[in-house]
Specification:
The structure holds two protein chains of two kinds. Chain A is built from six helices and 17 strands. Chain A is of the alpha+beta class. Helices cover 25% and strands 35% of the residues of chain A. In chain A, helix 3 packs across helix 6 and helix 4 packs across helix 5. Chain B has one domain. Chain B has a three-stranded antiparallel β-sheet. In chain B, helix 2 packs across helix 3. Classes of the chains: A alpha+beta, B alpha+beta. At the A-B interface, helix 4 and helix 5 of A face strand 1 and strand 2 of B.
Chain lengths: 283, 88
Amino acid sequence: MAQATLSIGGHTVILSGGSSVDMAMSLPGMKVFECAEAEVSMQWHLDSVIAAMECRWIHEFDVSDGAVHCRFGVDAQGGYHYDFGSCGRLHYMEGDGVYISPMSNASVMRFALWTAFAMMGMAVGAVPVHSSVVVCEGKAVMCLGESGTGKSTHTRLWLENIDHTHLLNDDSPIIAIHGDKVRVYGSPWSGKTHCYRQESFPIAGLLRLEQRKENTIRRLRVLEAFAALQPSCPPSMAKDEHCLDLLVQFISNVIEHVPVYRMGCLPNAEAAQLSHETLMPWK
Amino acid sequence: MIINDKMKVRTVVGENIVMMQGEGHTDMTRVVALNTSAMELYNALLGKEFELADVVKILTDNYDVDEEVAKRDAEAWLADMKKNNLVL
């Protein structure tokens, strides 16, 4: 039996199974998150035999640029199931680990591992958030928005125009709550930009971006902040009542501690300077 | 009339909210907030079949308002709740 230990979002994950463990560890970025044995908070059992179950399917979507049709459902015992088309399955029951069937498609495996983290993370206050994150002087700024709104463009503008800045993750960093501390962690899931960093930082602010003909920024009130962050959290979670309860609690804890802004922006240096001056006024 | 129990009230940083079922990838989730008195009415009427007069009675029993004001407030609350699919 093969095994690997990872530290993701401040939680220790054990991957076990057969040849899929090697395959998982050869995915881009995974090795960066390897760590020594520690108190384990998540167990992911790869190469598991998972029977097709009678489920109430509540969410369907495509991955791998539309090549793989997936569905998410709940069985009669309250267990969660993902079908990754003909590429495999994932099963998770709260209080137990995640089980993933043997997989041969690397991009689906990558998505299955992300799903495993999203499912187990919600119970411990660690959630992947679709965003591009830049770090400046020890504090992180997270850019949120629909695909094509310029999240990566805005973080690139920070890198080009603001001193002492580096990219933490360009697609799916993890916000994790440990005690009363809210931090953002790098992750093995960074989209097309290979930016994998085993680091975490306190968050200076979240920016929900939208393209505008001028640069504007405004701090959001509680309900607006909630509405701005929720669409960037894993979509399947909002489809199930229990997952949504956990997600709402998580978002509530985050926005209690971290300011959220709505920013209309142009793709220019002034946009980066405006968000920098607003989020880090002490500079 | 009844309260739509499929729409769950949740708490976000001390505020009572109901998330509206949006379709697809919208930029912002639509959220309706219930203030303290709206929440009291909601809790008092949840799971019951009720009419406008029941809402008015809860208001006149709990607040120092006359019947006419209570009726106006009750109608406004009901219109708001119906618009957001919270009362069926």
